[in-house]
């Protein structure tokens, strides 16, 4: 609305992702008069990094608040409420982009003070080293608590799960909904592959706090959330079938940080980096030197079965990898651990609607440092004799106003901005927190299965899809 006051925004978390995505986005919208960067919040241990980054920016926040690293919810609340700009008049909204174990505390603080929230994935995370599977399942309680609190306080919480706003996947879901709705045949098979080339040196598993492994979780609560959510979101089209799914059977298989340490031997590292260079690092603590600790997973495969009673409606395979093609070629950890660490995204999705249709999505970056080109190709194969249309149709998607499909201006980033706009517009229809209940249930069950399997148990479980079912999870 012309003449509307600029929205005051709190940015909680100025880590590598926020420095790449959110702060430049906030600067652009502040320059347009849409908002003001009211407060930046981070940890006291990050003081030098925060000050160095902000010193090079054209636009400055009104206030920087640094909280103690070991702050609990009460200490955190006191530190935030004591910030001048927030003491008397809370900001309009808060972007929560901290390490996920702090998500619930920041989101609860913001919602209780009437702020709208843009919440980074995952919704929450838990330290799994002690209670393990039971603690993983409590992520469902976190989602329900925050969703109910937001409704009670009349605020909007949008989850940054950008594939819900991605033009390629919006097109795929529209095609699926049309065919499934007309013929009553569900999505019978779904295969999701995502590899991101996050290559950690052995000692980094022990030391790093951004996208950590030392708290007992890994890939699933890093980028894995996106693809569990994509699976749940795309298969919503099955709800209109005569026999919609009412539960999900799940089996997990994973490799953790200790397993990667065994896959890449010292001899292999010495061959790749040179014996002398490797020798300067090889004595640092690593997962193999702490065998009793629960380490987060780097690679995980989920075999899922959407069921109606005893019958399988959809079979799905989710292959989520970090031990994959990387552009990293050095031993030292770069300053930019988000995209400057050699990550290479390969993303492929295949869906079958019985004998009627196959849809394939393919988006693979090349291995240039910083992220190579990343177009999205969508191919639709139809049984034209029965449902009409072209037997094969292909669409290559790029950013809408650029000939280049460079990673810095990718469709994924455009989709992230779409959900940022939803947040500013208080529009939770695409990715409001309440819509993520099924995703969080499936994710929590998968994480619990990984932990049980790591401790010698079974990775199998059954998940009730009806949100009213209180006993929603059963390990097998």
From TrEMBL:
Molecular function GO labels: nucleotide binding
InterPro entries xref list: Gfo/Idh/MocA-like_OxRdtase_N (IPR000683), Gfo/Idh/MocA_Oxidoreductases (IPR051450), NAD(P)-bd_dom_sf (IPR036291)
Location of the Gfo/Idh/MocA-like oxidoreductase N-terminal domain: 95-139
PANTHER family: BILIVERDIN REDUCTASE A
Protein name: Gfo/Idh/MocA-like oxidoreductase N-terminal domain-containing protein
Organism this protein belongs to: Streptomyces phaeofaciens
């Amino acid at each position: 609305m012309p003449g509307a006051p600029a929205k005051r925004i709190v940015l909680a978390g100025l880590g590598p992702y926020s420095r790449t995505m959110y702060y430049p986005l906030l600067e652009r919208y502040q320059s347009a008069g849409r908002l003001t960067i009211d407060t930046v919040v981070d940890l006291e241990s990050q003081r030098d990094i925060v000050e160095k980054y902000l010193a090079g920016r054209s636009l400055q926040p009104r206030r920087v608040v640094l909280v103690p690293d070991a702050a609990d919810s009460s200490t955190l609340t006191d530190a935030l409420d004591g910030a001048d700009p927030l003491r008397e008049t809370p900001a309009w909204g808060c972007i929560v982009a901290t390490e996920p174990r702090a998500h619930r505390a920041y989101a609860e603080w913001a919602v209780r003070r009437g702020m709208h929230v843009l919440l980074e994935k995952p919704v929450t995370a838990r330290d799994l080293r002690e209670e393990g599977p039971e603690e993983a399942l409590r992520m469902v309680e976190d989602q329900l608590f925050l969703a109910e609190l937001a409704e009670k306080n009349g605020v909007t919480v949008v989850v940054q799960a950008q594939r819900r706003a991605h033009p390629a996947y919006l097109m795929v879901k529209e095609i699926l909904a049309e065919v499934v709705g007309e013929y009553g045949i569900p999505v019978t098979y779904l295969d999701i592959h995502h590899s991101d080339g996050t290559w950690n040196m052995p000692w980094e598993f022990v030391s790093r706090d951004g996208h950590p492994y030392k708290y007992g979780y890994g890939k699933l609560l890093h980028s894995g959330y996106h693809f569990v959510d994509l699976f749940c979101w795309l298969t919503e089209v099955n709800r209109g079938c005569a026999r919609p799914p009412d539960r999900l059977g799940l089996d997990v298989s994973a490799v953790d940080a200790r397993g990667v340490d065994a896959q890449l031997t010292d001899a292999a590292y010495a061959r790749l980096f040179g014996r002398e260079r490797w020798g300067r690092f090889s004595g640092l603590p690593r997962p193999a030197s702490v065998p009793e600790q629960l380490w987060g997973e780097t690679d995980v495969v989920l075999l899922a079965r959407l069921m109606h009673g005893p019958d399988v409606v959809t079979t799905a395979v989710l292959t989520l990898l970090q031990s994959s093609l990387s552009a990293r070629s050095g031993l030292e950890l770069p300053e930019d651990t988000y995209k400057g660490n050699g990550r290479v995204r390969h993303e492929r999705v295949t869906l079958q609607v019985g004998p009627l249709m196959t849809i394939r999505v393919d988006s693979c970056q090349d291995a240039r440092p910083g992220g190579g080109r990343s177009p999205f190709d969508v191919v639709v194969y139809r049984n034209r004799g029965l449902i009409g249309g072209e037997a094969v149709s292909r669409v290559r998607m790029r950013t809408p106003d650029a000939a280049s499909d460079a990673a810095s201006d990718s469709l994924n980033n455009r989709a992230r901005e779409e959900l940022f706009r939803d947040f500013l517009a208080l529009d939770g229809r695409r990715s409001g927190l309440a819509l993520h209940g099924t995703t969080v249930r499936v994710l929590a069950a998968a994480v619990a299965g990984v932990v049980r399997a790591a401790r010698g148990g079974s990775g199998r479980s059954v998940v009730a899809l009806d949100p009213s079912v209180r006993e929603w999870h059963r390990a097998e």
